[in-house]
Amino acid sequence: MRLRLAALPLALLAGCATAGTTTTAPAAPQISLPTLQRVTQTLSSDEFQGRAPGTEGETRTVELLAREFRRAGLTPGNNGNWYQDVPLVEITLQGTPALRVTGPNNTNLNFAYRTDYIGASYRAQPRVAVNDSDVVFVGYGINAPELEWNDYAGVDVRGKTVVILINDPDWQSQGLEGRFNGRAMTYYGRWTYKFEEAARQGAAAALIVHDTAPASYGWMTVENSWSGPQLYMQSASNGADQTAMNGWLQNAAARRLLAAGGYDLDALVLAAREHGFRAVPLTGLKASVAMDNTLRNAASRNVIGILPGRTRPNEYVLYTAHWDHLGLCAEAGEDRICNGAVDNASGTSALVALAEAHVRAGRADRTLVFLAVTAEESGLLGSAYYAAHPIFPLARTAGGFNMDSLNLTGAARDFVSIGGGKSELDAWLQRAAERAGMRVSPEPTPEAGYYFRSDQFSLAKMGVPMLYGRGGEDLVNGGTAAGRAAAEEYRRARYHGVEDEYNPNWDWAGALADVRIYYDVGRALAMSTEWPNWHPTDAFRAIRDRSRAGQ
Questions:
Q1: Nearest-angstrom CA–CA distance, 264 and 343
Q2: How far apart are CA 144 and CA 152, in angstroms?
Q3: What is the C-alpha separation between 452 and 311, in angstroms, rounded?
Q4: Residue-by-residue DSSP string for 332-384
Q5: Which residues 6+ apart lie within 8 Å of 63 measured at CB?
Q6: Which of 105, 232, 371, 372 sits at a 20 to 30 Å CA gap from 60?
Q7: Mapping DSSP to helix (H, G, I), strand (E, B) and coil, where does residue 263 land?
């Protein structure tokens, strides 16, 4: 299915509750701080080796989660089994192949792996090669007929190497108005979409120009995420429909490449923002790279526990969090373990603490599903597999909340709704926040496209209304200045790096507030007879309507 997605301007409409929705507040939850701390610390310890799927770290992780779910009082969620098998293939690049670009006037550029570019093949083949491939700059690499925008119009890129800008054309807007929703990233701005579209266009290779601001993370994050074994969903064609190589170019390297074709990157960026932009062939430039890979089937596992519903057990409310992280990072030094304490041992600990709290409160009317998914860091693979092979019918899933990184910087006055303004679940979140004495805030960095970067997106694409959010930046101690500084420090120094480790001095007040809101929304939805939907103009609405109509 080819889904066209355009995020809508943020509109957190507290008054748009579904008619008849219960307004009864759930009883105050008993969230165990010791559980949050213990599970986070354990999962992010060196013993778990960074929780890479298909490793001993996975085995320890999923077995621990099954034990924790059982201890909390849940029932195995997959026909008596705690696990759902997720078939993956692991592709590991051998060596550090250079990307070579040749052209007129004795042009001979060699781009070093990791230093200048980083890439991988989505094809499950021992060797892939791109030989003397014409190079084309395709702007933002977007093909959006409903927005009358096509960066591939008038150019045939079959067998060629495309150079693409990250994010979408109006990401620098101050507001949320514009063809691509202004500052808020649409899915067209996400790197996953750009590689998907390049493959649909028949490109041999796709290279995204890295730029920290529109990407929302630095080169360290790219390097650590793309180095070492890479996981993909197994396919009957072994990825033959994918480009031979996908990757990223350092900004300085991209400037060198484009200059060799007679173009300036800054000038091309300005041109690519304009409606009617046409791709620019870099006449005479040829790109070549060869990659030798080792292949391994790396079946992984989602972990599923349930608290069966009391009166309507065949209706479901979903909590999700990804248990995986990157394993070993690319960074040099004695410590190479990417422990992933915040991302996402903390969110996984919330699954366990929520299970405990809901069991103590007793069975709700609907069944509560606690789903810890694999391979989020590899492209939302575990949640995508569940969405394609659901244990519980998606049409009978009323909605859910995804938890990816708790607020560990202290109590906040606000709760940020990531991707808010999309569904009627906004009203449920608004009420829960008010009961907690907090306000709901829009994303401070909508250009980062966080709604498309975690597991709620896999379920949303299949029509299930999903919330995603956490405590905001307006901290009780220090206000927004302190909150923004803490968020920036994490993105710059710890996100997807070896420094994302458990800190015994963390202030857990904000995390507890997060989990109480997750509980409140989930409990209210599980006790309701309502079926919140996407707003009528949202891209997911038609999918949900078709799904529910089949019931």
A1: 37
A2: 10
A3: 34
A4: -SS--EE--IIIIIIHHHHHHHHHHHHHHH---SEEEEEEEES-STTTSHHHH
A5: none
A6: 232
A7: coil
Average pLDDT over all residues of the chain: 93
Backbone angles phi, psi at 3, to 5 degrees: -100, 125
Q: Could you give the CA distance from residue 244 to residue 306 in angstroms, rounded to a whole number?
A: 41
Residue 237, both tokens: 């064609």
Q: Other C-beta atoms within 10 Å of 95: how many?
A: 9
End-to-end CA gap in the chain: 21
Report how far residue 194's alpha carbon sits from residue 211's, in angstroms, rounded to the nearest whole number. Answer: 15
Residues 497 and 504 sit within 8 Å (Cβ to Cβ): no
Are 485 and 409 a contacting pair, CB within 8 Å? no
Quote the CA–CA distance of 342 and 344 in Å, as a whole number: 5
- Cβ neighbour number for residue 34 with a 10 Å cutoff: 8
pTM equals 0.88
**Strand ranges inside 365-462, DSSP E:** 366-373, 397-402, 414-417, 439-441
H/E element, 251: helix 251-260
Q: 148: exposed, middle or buried (C-beta count within 10 Å: 0-12, 13-18, 19+)?
A: exposed
* Beta pairing class for 366-373 and 312-322: parallel
| DSSP string for 167-179 | S-TTTT-SSS-ST
Q: Closest Cα partner for 372 from 25, 48, 82, 3?
A: 82
Q: Where are the alpha helices (DSSP H) in 52-148?
A: 56-72
Helix 33-43, helix 509-526: angle, nearest 10? 110
Distance CA 247, CA 249 (A): 7
- DSSP classification of residue 534: B
Q: Of 193, 219, 187, 224, which is closest to residue 206 (Cα–Cα)?
A: 193
372-415 pLDDT, tens digit per residue, is 999 999 999 999 999 999 999 999 999 999 999 999 999 999 99
R_g (Cα) of the chain, nearest Å = 23
**Cα→Cα distances 224→46, 64, 174, Å:** 17, 26, 31
Of all residues in the chain, what percent carry a pLDDT higher than 70?
95
Q: Give the pair of three-digit tokens for residue 306.
A: 């349930």
DSSP state of 549: H
Phi-psi map region of 130: left, alpha, beta (phi>0 left; psi -120 to 50 alpha)? beta
Task: DSSP letter for 297, please.
Answer: E
